[in-house]
Write a structure and sequence with these properties.
By secondary structure, the protein is mainly alpha-helical. Helices cover 79% and strands 0% of the residues. It has a single domain, classed as MFS general substrate transporter like domains (Growth Hormone, Chain: A, Up-down Bundle), CATH 1.20.1250. Helix 1 runs antiparallel to helix 7, helix 4 crosses helix 7 and helix 7 packs antiparallel against helix 8. The radius of gyration is 20 Å and the shape is globular. It starts with 15 loop residues before the first helix and ends with a helix.
Length: 411
């Protein structure tokens, strides 16, 4: 199936491919979110310390940068469809392989392999969306997909907690494999090919030089770096909340799952506001405005720390403000980043993915170490530091982007 022109209308037919892609994205994300509550049982079965728990997500994210450097340029050479479809098949196999692990080391190695599924979503899948749709519709479709993908962290913890009540924790991966197989069928039938077979392509042997040139582009790297800075409160919360809510506040697994809902609800609300505002605001304004709820979120989490409450209410409300900001800004930041370079979009998307996932992996490890050293105080201060750094860095960068667009747009 080959795309010959930009899609300018969003309707049921044009959304079939994005929905098939987001189902795979949902399956990959739920491989993290659904497994997090089960990690308490995993550490018990393998007789290891609970400090292994956040390492599951870190290992997953390490897998997310393992092949990003290859999947994007490879899809530029041979096409988006074969690369993405192969990635879905590989992910299904790694999920089913979970039934054969019998040590925490082999489990973590498999988590790295499962994380490779992330490489195909951003560098191939989302690059195809950006190429297949015109600019405003690409942002809208990305926001729609983000909302659907958000069902993973909203449903995942609850579904995982419920499933392990009556089934082995390995059954989580069987559910994930089934969802991925359904996505594979949809992508096989509906994914367009946006790479023209006769278009001029850089020699694949020059891939190293392509990345050197890519990472020399300060504007692109800065825009990519802003994404994990904005998203760290949510990612750190997903990674650490089983320890914080179960160990520090004494909640059970079901209560842990319920506390995830307002956090992800803020992200959904932010995405809905972005979809509404795209037709009325210049691209980039929502990113500037998102700094205010981020600032409010930092204030709430620090207030909760000072008051030393016996409930995580202020902490969760503060993270909700940050996730609302993420919904307002993330799709726009990605659009700015991927259009910041004239190089082939598969390679550009791969470069962005490497920066973003590496940022998340490093951020989670820093947050984990701070939590292990100073408890919830370390977690809160680390989250506040990431958010404050984002506020300081984003405004001049986005104002510059908006000025460039005004100067190049036709009168």
């Amino acid at each position: 199936m080959r795309s010959t022109s930009k899609i300018s209308n969003i309707n049921r037919a044009t959304l079939l491919f994005p929905f098939a892609l987001v189902l795979f994205e949902f399956a990959v994300y739920i491989a993290n979110d659904m497994v997090q509550p089960a990690m308490l049982l995993v550490t018990q079965e393998f007789k290891v310390d609970p400090s292994w728990l956040p390492l599951s997500m870190a290992a997953f994210l390490v897998g997310g940068i393992t092949l990003s450097w290859l999947t994007g340029p490879l899809s530029d050479q041979i096409g988006r469809r074969p690369v993405l479809l192969s990635g879905v098949i590989f992910f299904i196999m790694t999920c089913l392989a979970t039934y054969f692990v019998h040590s925490i080391e082999s489990f973590m190695a498999l988590r790295v392999l499962q994380g490779i599924g992330l490489c195909f979503i951003s560098t191939v899948g989302y690059a195809t969306v950006q190429e297949a749709f015109d600019e405003k519709n690409a942002v809208k479709v990305s926001a729609i997909m983000s909302n659907v993908a958000l069902l993973a962290p909203m449903i995942g913890p609850l579904a995982g907690a419920a499933l392990i009540e009556f089934a082995p924790w390995r059954s989580c991966f069987l559910v994930i494999a089934i969802l991925s197989f359904i996505a594979l069928i949809g992508l096989w039938l509906k994914m367009p090919e946006t790479v023209h077979p006769h278009s001029e392509k850089p020699p694949f042997s020059r891939i190293f030089h392509e990345y050197v040139a890519l990472f020399k582009q300060r504007r692109l790297v800065l825009l990519a770096f802003l994404m994990p800075m904005l998203g760290m409160p949510l990612i750190a919360w997903i990674a650490m909340s089983p320890l914080i809510l179960v160990n520090d506040f004494g909640f059970n697994l079901l209560e842990y799952g319920l506390w995830q809902l307002p956090v992800l609800g803020g992200l959904v609300l932010g995405n809905l506001c972005l979809m509404r505002a795209t037709d009325y605001w210049p691209l980039g304004r929502s990113v500037l405005l998102c700094c205010w709820p981020v600032l409010a979120g930092v204030g709430l989490v620090l207030l909760g720390l000072l008051l030393q409450l016996e409930t995580p209410l202020l902490l969760v409300l503060g993270i909700c403000c940050c996730t609302f900001s993420e919904g307002l800004a993330m799709a726009v930041l990605y659009r700015f980043a991927i259009m910041a370079s004239e190089q082939a979009k598969g390679a550009v998307s791969a470069g962005i993915s490497i920066v973003v996932v590496a940022g998340y992996a490093i951020g989670i490890e820093v947050t984990r170490l701070c939590y292990m050293a100073w408890g919830i105080i370390g977690f809160t201060l680390t989250m506040a530091a990431f958010s404050c750094a984002f506020i300081l860095m984003v405004r001049p960068c986005i104002k510059d982007e908006m000025a460039k667009r005004r100067s190049t747009s036709p009168c």
